[in-house]
Specification:
The structure is a homotrimer. Chain A is of the alpha+beta class. The first copy, chain A, contains three helices and eight strands, in the order ββαββααββββ. The first copy, chain A, is elongated and about 50 Å long. At the B-C interface, strand 4, helix 2 and strand 5 of B face helix 3 and strand 8 of C.
Chain lengths: 136, 136, 136
Amino acid sequence: MPTHAAVISLSTKGRIEPVDITGDVAGAVRESGIADGIVCIATPHTTTAVYVNEPERGLLQDVVEMAGRLTELGVPLQHNRVDRNAQAHLGGILIGNSVTVPVRDGQPRLGTWQSIFFLELDGPRSRRVCVTVIGG
Amino acid sequence: MPTHAAVISLSTKGRIEPVDITGDVAGAVRESGIADGIVCIATPHTTTAVYVNEPERGLLQDVVEMAGRLTELGVPLQHNRVDRNAQAHLGGILIGNSVTVPVRDGQPRLGTWQSIFFLELDGPRSRRVCVTVIGG
Amino acid sequence: MPTHAAVISLSTKGRIEPVDITGDVAGAVRESGIADGIVCIATPHTTTAVYVNEPERGLLQDVVEMAGRLTELGVPLQHNRVDRNAQAHLGGILIGNSVTVPVRDGQPRLGTWQSIFFLELDGPRSRRVCVTVIGG
């Protein structure tokens, strides 16, 4: 049964930073030899997220702004008494730890304006992303 | 290896508009001949989203309201200098570009009150949704 | 074609309550006999969500706070005229009805701080979660 697993390693430089991993995911799909199916991109970290959207420079700044503001709930966050990154966890929960993208003809079947992003929410750090390709 | 791909085409009429695509997804699952597995529903557009919830008329208005308000960050959005739809992109990132639904006995295994929705965030436009069924 | 389906049953006690289901999901993956692939965890309810993050006690309180506040849109919600739980539906749409986790060596491939959570948003109630393992 065709399943292929790969791990992408990366280093983030900012506290909140979207990193375009489309090329790495496409490489994992190519390596898998799987022509049609799906590819699941999942982060194993709790203060990061994964999403699919446009790589336009201004939008990347807006994503950083959103990740910082949306989780300002206006009340003290309890997790900050243990570790000062509660907002990073909440951003990870809202945006999500994984995405699934169709695979067609040996490639991620993305739209014209779509790229796959790893979103650092508590950097800078060394991070990994798990890529699983399933199909035939 | 059983994988089946289909594309749903639709036209949206409003700027923000949820479109119930449950029947189309169920049709794609039926066509696939796959009895048990999962179905992945993914949008290739960056100003749309996909979600699963109730088709009650009032709730659909609330979803429209949420999509418009939640991404008003109270600061100028940078992507609006390129294209006046930054909020549509941010809504797509928050709600998500794909959902995965179990398949049982040749049907999407949805709960009593669940329907599958395509969410237009920058319409009206012609749109597509990619459906991939995997299983056996 | 290796596909394995399981249903987790649980009872929630609070109105908004995260329930750690990592052990149940790991059990379903073990039962499946599938070594490598993915596991999809999906809720069939429209006033619940599923997410992956840290089980730290303070963070669980922050998640409850976020689920309650983020969907206070500052306008009357229309679904509340039918049923007084519009915010629970909106929280389910934002956080999402399903997650996908890689499976490696017969186990969910989670990070050090990751657990899988079912999130009750309109409890207390009896609930189910659908687990589907796919791979080889």
